[in-house]
Amino acid sequence: MMSMTCHSFELGRTRLDFIACGCTSNTSFDHFPVRNCAKGVLNKGFKARKLLCCRREIGRCGVFSTKTPEGFLSGIANGPPPVLDVMKESTSPSVLSNMFDVVAEDLQTLNKNLQSIVGAENPVLMSAAEQIFGAGGKRMRPALVFLVSRATAGIVGLKELTKEHRRLAEIIEMIHTASLIHDDVLDESDMRRGKATVHQLYGTRVAVLAGDFMFAQSSWYLANLENLEVIKLISQVIKDFASGEIKQASSLFDCDVELEEYLIKSYYKTASLIAASTKGAAIFSGVHSDISEQMYQYGKNLGLSFQVVDDILDFTQSAEQLGKPAGSDLAKGNLTAPVIFALEKETKLRDIIDSEFCETGSLEEAIDIVKNCGGIDRARDLAREKADEAVKNLECLPPSSFRLALEQMVNYNLERIK
């Protein structure tokens, strides 16, 4: 179970927040040599793979240590359901036409149940849950649960979804929501889906506790499913979320970060939950383990493709489209696929990133380099590669409207960068 608490320390004029995830380390915070920067306060000496990793701009530090698992990449409510809003985002509506219609009733039921299963023991936590659930969203993860559930149920002759299928979809969305609440705290985001974030409305303390509560509540419902394989699968996801944040914090402004490291971090932060969603759905259908493994690989490859596309959009879309400044990941020192590829071609980019954008206009120059030296194009190729693998993973399923929708989900993702 992941639990986060925030501690603030004053150092001169700089406020440093420490996010601790159940760590029992006795690491000392006594001495911090700090260098003032035009756009942030950072110590340049703390670089990649150090225990202490500082974030530029927001001045928050994380103290963690983590190891990468070996061999990872080799494979192991009211009204219409908000999920249909996803169709408004595509430049090619035909790709998304009726994509989730085949599970629309399932999603409507889920939307009605989400707030009630959070529980009403604490009015503040309930209000926080209403804030985040009420903000809508695509409900992509539970939609994938329902699509895989119905696509695999037909293989074994199931005519209707089980209560375990439906509860899994609810658990997945709760875990995703909890991670969003914590992410908004870490990123100091004031808006999500056009609404004020939980921490903006209720403060950081309540937001962290609300996220913890949802993780705990989802774990309770998960345990009551009484399927050890699924329990282990989903529990690993919660650990992966923390590992992803740790890996990201420990590699800020690190120009030596490799593509494999980026993909592992992307798996932890994005693809892990999607992979667990699709595999868990297949397990509850009772299909052969070979098929459930293919559903896991489908979710992993789809999730990785989604993350790469999101990282491309951070450079290609406007601030209005993104809802945040363009190149914001790069500004924070988070080097994504387009940057990693660009670093292979342009040595000047390394110098700019090493300077942590202290010079006026240096961030804009770095963004231009990424755009003009092939970093975006190579990232597009990577997104397509993962998308192709995801489609191949679906070949084990018999033809159906549900399999078609799963394929359309892959195509929709690629449409975002055309």
Secondary structure elements and their pairing?
Elements: E1 5-11, E2 14-20, E3 35-37, E4 40-42, E5 52-54, E6 60-63, H1 93-96, H2 104-118, H3 123-134, H4 140-153, H5 163-187, E7 191-192, E8 195-196, H6 198-202, H7 204-223, H8 228-249, H9 259-285, H10 289-316, H11 319-322, H12 328-331, H13 337-343, H14 347-354, H15 362-372, H16 375-393, H17 401-415
Helix pairs in contact: 2-3, 2-5, 3-7, 4-5, 4-9, 4-17, 5-7, 5-9, 7-8, 8-9, 9-10, 10-16, 10-17, 13-16, 16-17
Spans where pLDDT lies below 50 across 5 or more residues:
1-97
- How many angstroms separate the termini? 39 Å
Helical percentage = 55-70%
> Briefly, what CATH class of the largest domain?
Mainly Alpha
CATH architecture of the largest domain: Orthogonal Bundle
- Strand tally, please? 8
What overall geometry do the principal axes of the alpha carbons give? globular
User: How are strands sequenced across the largest beta sheet?
Assistant: 1-2-6-5
Order of H and E elements: EEEEEEHHHHHEEHHHHHHHHHHHH
Structure annotation, total helices: 17
Mean pLDDT: 77
Integer tally of domains: 2
Q: What share of residues are in beta strands?
A: 5-15%
Largest sheet features: 4 strands, mixed
Keywords:
418 residues, alpha+beta, Farnesyl Diphosphate Synthase, 2 domains, four-stranded mixed sheet, two-stranded antiparallel ribbon, globular, disordered N terminus, Polyprenyl_synt_CS
Description:
This is Solanesyl diphosphate synthase. Pfam families: polyprenyl_synt (PF00348). GO terms for molecular function: metal ion binding; transferase activity. InterPro entries: Isoprenoid_synthase_dom_sf (IPR008949), Polyprenyl_synt (IPR000092), Polyprenyl_synt_CS (IPR033749). One of its GO terms (biological process) is quinone biosynthetic process. The chain is α+β, with helices and mostly antiparallel strands and 418 residues long. It folds into two domains: 5-63, no CATH class; 72-415, Farnesyl Diphosphate Synthase, CATH 1.10.600. 57% of the residues lie in helices and 7% in strands. The strands form three sheets. It has a four-stranded mixed β-sheet, covered by helices on one side. Strands 3-4 form a two-stranded antiparallel ribbon. A two-stranded antiparallel sheet has the order 7-8. A hairpin with a 2-residue loop joins strand 3 (35-37) and strand 4. Helix 7 runs antiparallel to helix 8. The longest helix is centred in the last third of the chain and has 28 residues, at 289-316. Residues 1-97 have low confidence and may be disordered.
